[in-house]
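seq:
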Amino acid sequence: MVGFSTALLAALLASAAPLLPVRAGNALTLPAQRHAVRIDTEEGRPPTWLLAVQQEGAGGRGLSLFRSEDGGRTFRFAAAIQPDGSHHDRADMLVVGRDVALVYSWESPGLKPSRKHDVYFQWWRYRPDTHDWAPQPAVRVFDADDSTAYTRALLARDSRGRLWVQAFRLDPDGGSTAVVSVSTNGGASFQRQSNLGRVKRRGGGRLLSLGSKLVFIYAMHDGFEPTRMRIRDDGDPLDIWSSVRNAFSDGIYHGAALSAVADGRGGMHLVYKDETERLYYRHFNGSTFGSRTLLEDSRDWAMQSAITRVGDRLYVFYNVMREPNTDYELHARVWEGGRFSEPVVLDSRATFKGYLNALETLPEGTSEVPCFFGESSDSVPARVARVALSVEGAGGEGTGGSEEPEPAPEPGQLLFGDGFSRTSSDSLGRDWELSGLWLTNGRYAVSDLDHPDGDDLALALPSRCDDCQVRAWLQAFAADEAGVVLRAQGDARYALVFLPDGRIQIRRYRDGRFTVLGEARSGQASAWEPTSLSLSAWGSGPVRLSASVNGQVRLSVTDSDAAAITGPGLAGLATPIAGVWFDDFQVRTVESP
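struct:
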């Protein structure tokens, strides 16, 4: 960490850039919700960023979806989520493969009973033919009536693929009940579960998946009471949650002035403003919260945070008041190795800057970390704006026998492809040679046997080739390794393996053993997230191999050993455990440079 704050200061992209018009500077509230997501669709295209913004009538729009193909530097209108600008709905979004799931609900300083204050879930499905996202009909999760209202809806997806929606119900006495509902059929319908808790005033919190468990923390407006929590393991029956217990002794301002993200290791980073209006950090290790770290000692009602995790670094953005309601600065600190850098100022222009929001995670190798915020002043119309920190040392890292990553040969003719969308669940079909157990669930190929002494191996029979590339999407839930193989001949093959710690390896298998030819960072923000892997092999004296993650080359190796695998073989999928999902399998020829 020596010189880290100096390096951070030198890395600033200090000028804020306006993005789109809104009615007021609170367009990106609720702070606890995810208003921005990033989707890597592969197909030779840059990742798409989607931003959900409540414009409150600006430009004639309400809750709107905007998209960017340049890393969130510029956005254009994509579609309306809820077009009524008087309704004040806000969204919480998450990415599932190339699709986006979201919930939307009412958010405003005032809350009263209304039939309009429902909670809706909606899929936005990716359309590869138009490279666009199309909404499916919204599903009402919580239905308000003349005596109640629902607000502050949050969305989580557990490791079993179930969708959980949590919201707060306004009670007749002015208190709030934390309600929750779950879908076991991909969002087609939801089943109400037992209430998670109750507070005496308006509530707020965060529902988050930490891989194999869900964590719910919550607090309330203007109440100097402890922050509470409940936890459930994904393997338990749906109605089983831990009992209510204190998460930590201090409350959270309005229950919702917080930003939280999974740490990729079964825990959680939490940045929040307490009831004294000071900003703190805590880490949750999967069972308990650690002691708090003070990030900002100044006090103001409008101070909020937004956080992004890149690998093991946490980027924290927050606003600091200089003149109440009119003049705020944007600051940033970076957490790494258990400590924070000194704060740096990103934007000191005399404007109101509030209600920050950022991506939960970005992959390692990303060049900058942006933050979005609402901005307004007497001379500046209300708008959403952006600042960013550049990332020191972005890029892949190789070890062992790895070389500096270099471009792989361009893929050519498609030899074989499988999207696994058939309805038969017995096996993968006659085009596949299988070891272990495999099935299809109508959308994915799924390994179905824990295999401690070997792999569940699926080889595509029409894929025999020597100079070629194999590519597949997979979701292993950080439970164990999984990957793709090339040049499979008997018990010999090359493999690209995605490890549960988020790294990748290129391996050579022979005689029941494997040799690691190279290892590198995958660039994935978390091994809990899905990824797209591709492995290219070409040549025979020596054999060259190149590995890509989400379309970016991460590792290149040369195998000049006498055991190198030369000549054609089959391509396929491999994992030693049950429950790994595979999709979008393709094998293409490549031309040796």
